[in-house]
Design a protein that fits this description.
The protein has a domain at 40-150. The chain is built from 8 helices and no strands. The protein has helices at residues 16-35, 39-60, 69-80, 84-90, 95-102, 110-124, 134-149, 151-159.
Length: 170
Amino acid sequence: MTNDFEYGVDSRYKSKKEKESDSIALMQARLDRMKNVSKDQIVRAKLLQLKLKMENYLKESANDDNSNFTGFLQVYIDAIYSKRSKFAKDINVTPVFLSQIINNHREPKEEFILKLMIHSEKAFKNIGDFHKKIWYQVYFQEKISDTMSSQEQWRPKIEKQVKLSEVIAK
């Protein structure tokens, strides 16, 4: 007999038909449960998931497509709002300004990040602890990573401009 457990195969089933029947029943139970989930529960779940992803990004510097400031910002806004323009209005910026930040055509100003920080505090108030500094940490972590990974491009030019006129003894 092979070790089915090594491949994640459930050995409780005596036939393929029995296994398929249970799979269908499980999927139906999941769908039935999803029908009863409220919009608030979905938003809460999305925000908690975002928080965990951001914290993981800061711990491990994960580097997938949405592991950056604007990726997290998009997920945050889309979890709460049906239209990004509503978010822009709530934090008193123009939709064009917000779009430029999301599409990396403009760097967020400090005031924008401060507004985002306060908005997040309010959004997470009844959900769970959301550190005030996390948006700053994510933003600057990305900047540090970008700067360090692009040294080959900027370093030769900058290095020519830097001298050490004082000798430092060992």
